[in-house]
Amino acid sequence: MVPLLTGLLRLPQHLAHGTSLAIVVFVGAAGLAGYWLTENVDWSLALWLSMGASVGAYLGAITMTRLEPRALRLMFGLFLLMVAVRMFIT
User: Fold this and answer.
1) What is the CA radius of gyration of the chain?
2) What total of structural domains would you count in the chain?
């Protein structure tokens, strides 16, 4: 989503990351509804994981605002490259 927002819509890097995360929240909520209705959610595990993820998301957002757009773009590109390599290996 971030490459689409920055490349096609020309959003600044920071705004693209925040917008992408907002979209993930809305889409995730819709998906959760479906899984919840079919009783496919482990709520105790979800609670523990969401506590850690919330702390990580907060710290990540704080860190992101302190980075220059070029550094953020480079780090995000490296992350995508690592994910792609891992997908090919496993």
Assistant:
1) 16
2) 1
Its pTM stands at: 0.66
Tokens of 58: 């907060």
Q: What is the pLDDT of residues 57-88, one digit of tens each?
A: 999 999 988 999 899 889 989 999 999 999 99
Q: List the domain range (segments joined by +) for residue 83.
A: 2-89
Contact 70, 14 (CB under 8 A): no
Distances in Å between the Cα of 52 and the Cα atoms of 22, 29, 39, 57 are 19, 18, 23, 9
Structure tokens at 3: 């490459």
3-state SS, residue 50: helix
pLDDT band at 90, cuts 50/70/90?
Answer: confident
